[in-house]
Specification:
about 450 residues; 4-stranded parallel sheet; binds zinc ion
């Protein structure tokens, strides 16, 4: 019997036992990328963290009983700007399509390399415009939104408990907002649901003219379409609490007349690089693609599982300092782990308990490392190690070796075995070291049945 799953809920600022609305269909929504540029290491964090949650929920409730929706935002002013800059010779719609397709493909390659499962559904904003318009019409109809100067705005004062997630009183939110710019707004905190588009901007026909949606409404539309008006868990980075998630809640609750949008709100902490806030001008802006396939960071390419482990060695709610030192630490750790195949064995209960305690991946990785050491000497523990590593998504894969090479290695290993039998240890050691330099690890032992000396080998990671 595994431990009760406890999750920290930003909405109530405490850790509590997780109770799904429907254990046959546990529903999770995580805000996905806006596709206009390479995803950076800060974007990688929520994708990895919520992938661990997805894996844990699948373990607890069954693989087919979890629906994980992560959207792609493919309409945004940053995308327009990039399309005009990079594809000036194309018609605007084609240019936008070129930017979003290229970036979404890159994102998928990056997160696959980080060992992330595909979400159950990955809706795109532009495929859900109709649903957004329907929600906006509802909000206007029930007095929560109004039209002003070519925009449809959400009336924050119309919602008595607006601000519950971020715990900011409305007055505080308004401080610092330049009133002159927002003269058409009833309240300074009111936000855009729909805005008219010029000919140079993408647009869709709507009751308010040809326009495009605001960012927040996208997630309200996609989550309710795929997960229902109220669902279990909504996740994202800490920076999304206000205004994005606060406004998602306002839209969804006021449109559907519900008490909550999602029961549990989970947020991962900030990411720094080498002790500083990531910024392009500081030269410490690192993309996933750079880490995986260039020498830009630390003078070498980093394998996806090392990046992932480095991320999981800090609790998801803590800030993380992403550094070369940290990557080297993760690399040293994982190098000591045995390669194994995914098995049907049960994961180690200690690992499950750690993850069940608000995704304590720090404790889970510690236990996994100890288990790896044990499995290195006692092969019967390999299946449990493999199942536990798979739960964290950090299972070292057996390297595929082609048959010709395997045959050649077998022959050399057999030759060395003869030398050992002839007590020619110096030559046997020399062969072992030579193979080791080529990345092949030998392991000497005795056949349990016959007591004869045997040597096995594997390709080092
Ligand atoms: Zn969102």
């Amino acid at each position: 019997m595994s431990a009760t799953l406890k999750l920290y809920n930003t909405l109530i600022r405490e850790k509590s036992a997780f109770q799904p609305i429907d254990a046959d269909n546990v529903r999770v929504y995580v805000c996905g990328p806006t596709v206009y540029d390479f995803a950076h290491i800060g974007n990688a964090r929520p994708v990895i963290v919520f992938d661990v949650l997805f894996r844990l929920l699948r373990h607890v409730y069954g693989d087919t009983h979890v629906t994980y929706a992560r959207n792609i935002t493919d309409v945004d002013d940053k995308i327009n700007a990039r399309a005009l800059r990079d594809f000036p010779h194309l018609a605007l719609n084609d240019a936008i399509h070129a930017v979003t397709e290229k970036t979404a493909k890159q994102f998928h390659e990056d997160v696959a390399a980080l060992g992330c499962l595909e979400p159950t559904v990955e809706p795109r904003a532009t495929d859900n415009i109709e649903q957004m318009i329907a929600i906006i019409e509802k909000l206007i109809g029930n007095g929560h939104a109004y039209v002003a100067e070519g925009e449809v705005l959400f009336d924050t004062k119309s919602m008595s408990d607006y601000g519950q997630l971020s715990k900011r009183p409305l007055d505080e939110q308004q401080a610092g907002i330049r009133i002159t710019v927002d003269a058409h707004k009833k309240n300074p905190g009111d936000f855009v649901l729909w805005k008219l588009s010029s000919d140079n901007e993408p647009g869709w026909e709507s009751p308010w003219g040809r326009g495009r949606p605001g960012w927040h409404i996208e997630c309200s539309a996609m989550s309710s379409r795929y997960l229902g008006e109220v669902f279990d868990i909504h996740g994202g980075g800490l920076d999304l609490i206000f205004p994005h998630h606060e406004n998602e809640i306002a839209q969804s609750r006021c449109a559907h007349g519900t008490e909550v949008m999602a029961n549990v709100w989970m947020h991962n902490g900030f990411v720094q690089v080498e002790g500083r806030k990531m910024s392009k001008s500081d030269g410490n802006f690192v993309t996933i693609h750079q880490l995986l396939s260039t020498d830009d960071f630390g003078g070498k390419q980093w394998p996806g599982d090392v990046l992932r482990l480095a991320m999981l060695m800090t609790h998801y709610r803590e800030p993380i300092d992403f550094s070369i030192k940290r990557l080297e630490e993760a690399e040293r750790l994982i190098a000591k782990w045995p390669a194994a195949d995914v098995s049907n064995a049960d994961p180690c209960p200690v690992v499950i308990d750690a993850l069940s305690d608000d995704l304590n991946t720090v404790a889970a990785v510690q236990r996994l490392h100890a288990l790896a050491q044990e499995a290195n000497v006692d092969a019967t523990l390999l299946p449990m190690f493999a199942a536990s590593a798979a739960l964290l998504g950090v299972l070292p894969k057996k390297t595929e070796v082609d048959e010709a090479l395997a045959g050649a290695v077998d022959a050399v290993v057999a030759m060395r075995l003869e030398m050992l039998k002839a007590k020619n240890f110096a030559e046997a050691d020399r062969i072992r070291d030579e193979l080791s330099a080529k990345g092949i690890q030998l392991k000497d032992g005795k056949d349990a049945a016959t007591g004869e000396r045997v040597t096995t080998w594997e390709v080092k990671r």
